[in-house]
Amino acid sequence: MSITQENVLEALRTVPEPDLKKDLVTLNMIKDILVDGKNISFTVVLTTPACPLKEVIRKSCTAAIHELVAADAVVTVNMTADVTTGRFNSGPILPGVKNIIAVSSGKGGVGKSTITANLAVALAKSGAKVGIIDADISGPSIPTMFDVEDVRPNVIENESGKPTIIPIEQYGVKLISIGFLSDPESAVVWRGPMASSALRQFISDCDWGELDYLLFDMPPGTSDIHLTLVQTVPVTGAIVITTPQKVALADATRGLQMFRQPQVNVPILGIIENMAWFTPAELPNNKYYIFGQDGGKKLAEKFDVPLLGQIPIVQSIRESGDMGKPAIINQDEISAIAFKLLAETVAQQVAIRNASLAETKKVDIKV
Fold first, then answer.
1. From CA 105, how far away is CA 86, in angstroms rounded?
2. How many whole angstroms separate alpha carbon 224 and alpha carbon 160?
3. Counting Cβ atoms within 10 Å, is residue 170 exposed (0-12), middle (13-18) or buried (19+)?
4. Virtual CA dihedral for 218, 219, 220, 222, nearest 10 degrees?
5. How far apart are CA 252 and CA 296, in angstroms?
6. 216: nearest Cα among 271, 134, 118, 142
7. Cβ-count burial 123-155 (b if 16+ within 10 Å, e if not)
8. 120 neighbors 173 (Cβ within 8 angstroms)
9. By the 8 A CB rule, do 274 and 299 touch?
10. What are the tens digits of pLDDT across the range 60-70?
11. Nearest-angstrom CA–CA distance, 304 and 342
């Protein structure tokens, strides 16, 4: 009996998407089925190019065809990706941006900007379109992290004659920061309304184009900037960065609870435990818990949110940040592997959030 496209579809109805808990056909993840005798090919459209389970899905598809269609079929499973979004009616602000992610921390010094930079580059290396808004107006770090401290963005007029900022692009990531517009050795001493106005300009007066993920490197704590963000755009989700020690966990708890307030109601994508342990380059299998052990993991368990990753202290992370070359670029190092896994987990949680939760709405807070 000859093999038909319907035979292939019926077999693939038995293959679940591991995170979304529905089959690939129901999720409209199968396209371009071609059958030529015993040769079968089709494309699986993943929810993100950083999908950590692509090989699991590929093997499951092949096994289903061999079991339910033809044991001797020659199966070619092509993989592509179309990043999902919860912004179905995104409106005039950031219309081409699929996911807006706040990267936050309760306190300074926990490596939030380092995490943001490496996460963004890791997502870009996977094939996603990524941007960063450096929302830490008084302490911008992104220009240093990307070795673009002396670069200035171009300003053009858009079709309606409005001045529009063109973000700087480095390592495949679009960037904007107050650090591009001010003297790097001068302090930005602004009251809250001025800082909030700058953030709104970064959101609405920049040409971001089409992006899969726009990361906001937030200032420490819970401030005007956080309120401005959630009042200006619907935020897909928030990531909370902490280190393992008690003082950091207390502040991370407050930061997490801010997003969970009923009037804010931004989903928590998860917690990242940075500086989870120290690993010397010459002893890659050794772990020294100099700031305590599993503090971020315990915090994630307490609030029933995912632990997105535990990032070690490695000297190369600091060196890479100082050189403006994020550690993820050095493919084989311990830190690069950790950031690659982190990006896959973050992308996975964004896809789960978009499939399981309603669109986050822009909030109206009277303060």
1. 24
2. 31
3. buried
4. -80
5. 9
6. 134
7. bbbbebbbbbbbbbbeebbbbbbbbbeeeebee
8. yes
9. no
10. 999 999 999 99
11. 18
Is 55 exposed, middle or buried, given 0-12, 13-18 or 19+ CB atoms closer than 10 A? Answer: exposed
- pLDDT value of position 271: 97
Torsion over CA: 284, 285, 290, 296 (sign): positive
Determine whether 53 is exposed, middle or buried from the number of CB atoms within 10 Å of its CB (0-12, 13-18, 19+): middle
Cα 201 to Cα 133: distance, rounded to the nearest angstrom: 11
Question: Which residue's structure tokens are 């902490």?
Answer: 242
Kindly report the pTM of this predicted structure: 0.92
Check whether 367 has a pLDDT greater than 60.
no
Whether 66 contacts 59, CB under 8 Å: no
Q: Phi and psi for 355 in degrees, rounded to 5?
A: -85, -25
Question: What does the alpha-carbon distance between residue 75 and residue 39 come to, in Å, rounded to a whole number?
Answer: 6
The sign of the CA dihedral 141, 144, 149, 151 is negative
Distances 297 to 118, 213, 277, 300, 344 between C-alpha atoms, Å: 21, 25, 13, 5, 18
pLDDT digits (tens, 9 = 90+) for 70-123: 999 999 999 999 999 988 766 788 999 999 999 999 888 899 999 999 999 999
Q: Which two tokens stand for residue 280?
A: 């010397």
Who contacts 113 (Cβ-Cβ below 8 Å, separation ≥6)? Answer: 134, 136, 141, 142, 145, 217
